[in-house]
Amino acid sequence: MNRVTVKPELLRWARERASRSVESLRKPFPELVLWERGEMNPTLKQLEDFAKATRTPIGFFFLTEPPVERVPIPDFRIVNQDRIAHPSPDLLDTVYICQQRQEWYRDFARSVSEEPRGFVGSASLKSDIEATAASMRQALWFDVEERRQLPSWTDALRRFIEQADALGVLVMMSGVVGSNNLRKLDPQEFRGFALADDLAPLVFINSADSKTAQMFTLAHELAHLWLGESALSDVSPVSSPSHEVEVWCNRVAAELLVPFELIKSEYQRNTDLKGEMNRLARLFKVSTLVILRRIYDLGGLTREQLQGAYDEELKRLQAIPKPSGGDFYLTQAARVGKRFARALVVSTLEGQTLYRDAFRMLGFSKMATFRELGYSLGVF
């Protein structure tokens, strides 16, 4: 039986990179312990299977030492330094997939003579927070009065996404890598990222995160686009980022969703916190978590009180059962973004893009699925 010489440290690196233990891989690879000790080498078939199980490009196993992988965009995450040093294959593949989609859309935008998005890079760290947030609300047509007419903050989140899409932002929301439901994204590793580009600005939201966090993440990543900077983030309404870019984007996101002067006039300081938090959430059509942040900004809570109230409210929200099922085509459109999906379907029907390439970027392989997606997007 022919065996392949592989350095033990490369096998160990691949396993740890995929966050897998020896025990979890013992059944398919009973000799793994011996491989990692250098007492035995795998066969080529075993190595191919191991590469697939650990989501590692097989060529990596023939290097002289483990490669140092970095997220290909500025990384502003602040929690779990080990994960920052060793990004998971799921995170890396998600960024690469979005970069490929962005590159395709950039070429498409040029081919149809779309104008550059003037808002990308229109602000700087010296820009006034309130003025920047106001210009974003105006560009997005996402003012507080309109939100007040919506039934709930979840409807407001849906409208927020639609308005960003209409402005020219490729908004992609998924909790898995591509369309692989077995590769779930971990919100503890990242909440979202922005890929700045004046023709194809892109925001990715990790939808494995709670819906209550997604509106703030979208606002935060849009702030990155206004700065004209790509970034990977793990912020929340109550996080205390150390990097000045993240501090600025967090402040803009909070001001965009809940203007300081408006909540200052609405906030009733001497009332029950939970009741007031819920009342203001209904008024501004944002999650209670964002309201807690703004009450803190008003001086209504200390940092310690904010963290305690936030953790308690997050625990309550996470205990609410999530609806099951859902429309496949709506889910697919959300994963790749309606603007991107619509453009790709049209380009493919016109013969400008190969069906093979369209299927790869959309994450499926059936013509019937492609046509149904087109119908759901109003292309046909």
Account of the 3D structure:
- It is a single chain.
- With 380 residues, the protein is α+β, with helices and mostly antiparallel strands.
- The protein folds into three domains: 8-62, Orthogonal Bundle (434 Repressor (Amino-terminal Domain)), CATH 1.10.260; 89-318, no CATH class; 331-376, no CATH class.
- It is built from 18 helices and six strands.
- It has a four-stranded mixed beta sheet with strand order 1-5-4-6, sandwiched between helices.
- Strand 4 and strand 5 form a beta hairpin.
- The longest helix is centred in the first third of the chain and has 23 residues, at 89-111.
- The relative contact order is 0.10.
Q: In terms of topology, how is this protein built?
A:
Blueprint: H1 8-17, H2 32-37, H3 44-53, H4 81-85, H5 89-111, H6 129-140, H7 144-148, H8 153-167, E1 170-174, E2 176-177, E3 180-184, E4 192-195, E5 202-206, H9 211-227, E6 231-233, H10 244-257, H11 260-266, H12 273-284, H13 288-297, H14 303-318, H15 328-336, H16 338-349, H17 355-362, H18 367-376
Parallel strand pairs: 1-5
Antiparallel strand pairs: 2-3, 4-5, 4-6
